[in-house]
What we know:
Blueprint: E1 16-20, E2 23-27, H1 32-36, E3 42-45, E4 52-58, E5 62-69, E6 72-79, E7 81-82, H2 86-92, H3 94-101, E8 106-107, E9 111-115, E10 118-125, H4 138-150, H5 161-175, E11 202-203, E12 210-212, H6 218-223, H7 231-244, H8 253-264, H9 272-275, H10 281-300, H11 303-348, H12 354-377
Parallel strand pairs: 8-12
Antiparallel strand pairs: 1-2, 2-7, 3-9, 4-5, 5-6, 6-10, 9-10, 11-12
Helix pairs in contact: 4-7, 4-8, 5-10, 7-10, 10-11, 11-12
Amino acid sequence: MSVPWPTGLLAEGAEGTAHTAWGPVRVLSSKVEALLSSEHGAAWGFTPGGADVEPTHSDRLGRWFRAEQDGTVYDLLLCTFGTGRALSSLVQHADRAEAIAASQRVQLPVGGCTVDGHDALLVWKHAPAVPLDADLDLHDQFRAAGAVLGTLMPWSTPPVERRWNDAIATVEQRLGASTLWRAPHDRVTVGLPDLHLSLHGLVEGPEGPRFRLLPRTVDEALTAVTGRRPGLAHAMGLEGEAVEAGRASDQGGPERWFKAWSEGAPAAWSRPRALSTYRGGLWIWRYADVLRWRGRALAWGEQDLQEATKSWLEDVDRLQARLGVLRMWRSLLWLGGAGLAATWYAHALEAMGGASIIALAAGSIAVGAGGWLRYRAAEPGPF
């Protein structure tokens, strides 16, 4: 069973650690039988050793198999590339795993095997896949995603904006992007334990479609902001998948999807200050997500997607130019403050008459207030 290969990133058939323009890539070569029998790698949780294994299909993650043991059917993923062990690490933190599992909208792997610090084999109980098509209730899925992420609040950390900005800068450099965007972020935009939610990884569950937590593809590992991302980053990742699937105008579009996500997530995450474009808001994470899509397009040779992401990045350039103009209006606030300071000194030194002092003070206030009001009123909205 052959697997898709990112020929835009590394030569087909590469082995071991391959050096690419985006950094080193570990190609995994373990056999599923060897991993299940513990002949290779480090097993954790439950693995159906000795079970009959049948191949089912392959995708960008690797080869999928089905196994049955003691009347229970399992789905197995044999990863093609090493992209870390974030998923197995999350599951092995029992308190975090129990918290997100309690939402009933996530399916965690029950076991697997790591090789040299990478998830090489992952095992889930079998569940039928739920396609991202017109029958999928996006409001319900976005609401569920917000609730799942909210369960991780006890393990959240303060904003790590420097790390996020540095990660975006690294991706920009790897992709040769001319757009450069950094953001300060609001204090409620907290970092969450690393996990990967995807509308392409949905499976049936007792209370509706569940997110089957999956590892990242090799291109995502190299061109996505990973680690302790905030909830807004996850929301924009799901929005990007829905739009790319051709559902941009379905069920109210991105604005209604995000409203549903906000209903499930902690309320503070979507407060106005957190969504402010001046502080990054949703747009900085849309930008990061489009960089991820561009990485996929380049790695897997998807020409149409390359053109689409190139066009979107040009839109980002225009948005940044607009933000630059608006910051000039904000600078009038400082000019007004300087005028008030000059007024105070002139009054203290008796260097100006009363009428002149009043005129200068009034003018300074008008300039500062006018610039600030213009700056706030013209802020680009999140949608």
